[in-house]
Amino acid sequence: MSNRKENSTYSINEKIVHEECDLIYAINKLGGRWKLYILSKLEGRKMRYKELRDEIHPITERMLTLQLKALEEDKLVKRTVYADVPPRTEYELTEYAKKLIPIWNSLIEWGGSHKEIMKEDL
């Protein structure tokens, strides 16, 4: 149970995010610099933490860990720990996250064309 008051601005905003606006809810779950990028790297394959970190080289280890935990909590990434020695952990997209593939592919296309338009203004 949250310590925040039910009528606080935070509580009102949380209610809007979780109950009233699906777009705001989706942006809240996928927003930020790294989440969609991490998900896109997992498209069609399982990856270990180090592989993800190496492919997303500007991300800090702390940020990658936080983002993976959030994606796992939101049921977008499945984390599997194997009882190998040393232990091995793999990440993969959930079936629900795979529904986002056409969305991020459209965003990639849009981003590329928008960058070109912005270059014209320079």
From TrEMBL:
UniProt GO molecular function: DNA binding
Taxonomy, superkingdom: Bacteria
HTH hxlR-type domain mapped to chain residues: 21-119
Keywords (A to Z) from UniProt: DNA-binding, Transcription, Transcription regulation
Pfam families assigned: HxlR (PF01638)
InterPro entries: HTH_HxlR, WH-like_DNA-bd_sf, WH_DNA-bd_sf
PROSITE patterns: HTH_HXLR
Name of this chain's protein: Transcriptional regulator
Provenance organism: Chishuiella changwenlii
